[in-house]
Amino acid sequence: MSEKLPFDTTKKGLSIGALVCGILSVLCFWNPIGLLLGMLGAVLGGSSLYKRVGRKGAAVAGIVLGILSLVLFFAGSIAVHIIVVTAIENIFTFLFALIGLLAGLF
Fold first, then answer.
1. Exposed, middle or buried by CB within 10 Å (0-12, 13-18, 19+), for 75?
2. Using CA atoms, how far apart are residues 21 and 67, in angstroms rounded to an integer?
């Protein structure tokens, strides 16, 4: 039967690092630094849980905030892509209509 070993709370580096990376990643989720910090927070939190060191709450919070940051980054990227593509399509539609109108005058 497997025993649940207690967390070694004397080594807090991984869990605190996960929490800090998770918080910073949510604060700057819109740029690639936030993306990298989100991945790092999730990895550090997972490593802390796997090794059973540090504080469990900080590790879980780092994982959750890191994943939230990744979701926000990709959702924001998709939204910006849709907005930019729609704007470019509208600009080209307007320009082609204007060219057609000007060509009809001559």
1. exposed
2. 11
pLDDT in tens, 9-32: 777 888 999 999 999 999 998 899
Q: How far apart are CA 21 and CA 19, in angstroms?
A: 6
Q: From CA 76, how far away is CA 84, in angstroms rounded?
A: 12
Task: Report the chain's C-alpha Rg in angstroms.
Answer: 24
Buried b (16+ CB within 10 A) or exposed e, 8-28: eeeebebbbbbbbbbbbbbee
Cα–Cα distance, 23 to 17 (Å, whole number): 10
Extract the tokens encoding 7. Answer: 């967390």
Task: Return the structure tokens found at 105.
Answer: 């005058």
Asked whether the whole model's pTM tops 0.90, one would answer no
